[in-house]
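Example (one chain per record):
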Amino acid sequence: MATSDATSCADESPSCPICLGAFNIPRQLTCMHCFCEHCIKSYIKSKAAKVDDIDKIECPVCQTVVRRPHRVTSVESWISRLPINTVLLSISSESKVNVIRPCEACQSRDMMKSADGYCVDCEEAMCVDCKVVHQHQKATKTHSIVCLEELTRSPQNALKYATAFNCPEHDGEDIKFYCSNHRLACCVVCCGMNHRNCESVLDLKTEASTLLKEDPGVIIESLKTLETHLNKFIDINNENISNLECQMNVVTAAIRDLRKKLNDALDEFERKIKMDGNIIYKGDMIKKQEENHACLSLVNSIRNSRAVLEVVNQNGNNIQKFLVTDKTKSQLTSYSEVIHERFKKINKITLQLKVDPRLQSLMEGNFAKLVTKSEYQDFPLKVMNRLKKRCSFLVTSIFEVKGQDEKKEHYIDLVCLPEDKVMLIDDYNSRCYLLDSLFCNISSYSFLSMPWSIRISDAEEVVVSLRDHNQIQFLSVKDNTIRPTRMIKTRLPCFGIDVAGKGSIVVSGPNFAKRKCYWSVINDRGEETSYHEYWDRAWSNSYIALNELKTRVYISTYVTDSLFCFDIAGSLLFIYNPDNLKGSYGITLDMDDNVYVLGRNSKNIHQLSPDGAVLQILTAGLPKCPVAITYNRSKNQLLLTNEPSQRKIHAIKLS
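Predicted structure:
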């Protein structure tokens, strides 16, 4: 892998995600990510060196599995079968990048000749001699050969001579159809083998313009946003590297000052501490540079996707627009998830000299030690919000909860567990139920007092607020059985509850003594670490939800008809209080930190951005009086309960 400074990001021309340099013969994998020919060849060879017979690789960017074509035995042959992305090639040429294009036929015979022609059918660059042979062979004499200079002169020419998109599953087959049921582009063989029973398989030649529902410009803007965030990540790391150098200088000065006081006894200490300091400093610097390199690689991939999509959007036909847009849209989701995981790991490393004040082992040279501290930062990645557009609510499904034995039930809250299991809270009967993926009861548990809200503590444990006794109950759901594990006592009644991290819980409820609504952060012993009041009236019915980074607290309180948002330190960020939100009740967040709050009396769902901007309000297809709501990440759907209780769960699919 090549090394590069973050300033290379300033260059807007397409570049290879591996070497971070200008493309030299951009070869395209089936996932549409492109790399220099020699870079992807080196990558495949490095993987092949670890196994006897390599038949597949993972894309260096998205980890999509790319299989070796049939009847191909060598890495060189495999590389030659990878298509050249003529659009990127033309963009590189347009940017006046010196792209060397050898004749591929000569190259396979270990000969080096520059190419001046390109066979559109074979997707190969060739020299003058090979071009003559190609035009006179019976099998290839009808092929279309164009001047390589003309092909790379502009993106318009590249698209003009672009061949069909190849099927990643079947060698030699072009993508001609689109299965709406599976949302997959496919070839004739795919249709015959995998989509025979599908109801909607469309011919791209006639239906591409109809299928092109997503505006490529929206995706282009989202790709630009991802680039901006990655560059911000790089800037943070570069600033940290600079600060580490300054801090190392401070440490060195502190060592010199200490040495003046300790004279000869500090000679050995100075040598040792400088050596340790340089090792730590260089190690942290290298780590940050490696993180930057990974980000630069992803920036270049995003830029390449954007560049191709911009060109196709401006100059391509409808089939090209649809296929590139559809593939880039899936890449965008993958990019967002990768970047989101990366930003969760942003840390600020500091370097300090920590001196032992007692100097117990003075003569042994144990005067001080170097301490590094990683401080994770709250990076506002969620402003991306996927494609910065509201989601679509699809058809509502209604499932009957089976296996309960109570005559009357009231599902006041629910939560989704791994394997699509659901846990319900029934406050009428002071019970909770564990349901399987088909909403059949597989276990239940009775509380000693009335429960209110439930949230996940970890993969095998949930936490429930008990409103009447100022208690929080922890329950194990391991092996499909509900068992109590521990209980903590709180100072005030707690209704809303969510987990803020290990050993930290956020609760909300009424402070009747002060006639206020409050929320607070408590530890695993029930002790308050922070306390905040937010409404001048003591009212019990409230729900809490935290964002994924645990930096924001959203509170829905019934009497206020409002949604409150605070940062975890207690500062009010916004209040959402529209006229058409009556009886604000259940609340949940999706994977993009969009907020969904129920209007129990207004009978609607309000979808908000993380910053409180209303995205849409759903009224159709809802139960009469929606009460509780949760988000199922694996199925990307909302689950709702309602009043009066009908032992039913409403599922609303998002897209």
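Caption: The longest strand covers residues 347-355.
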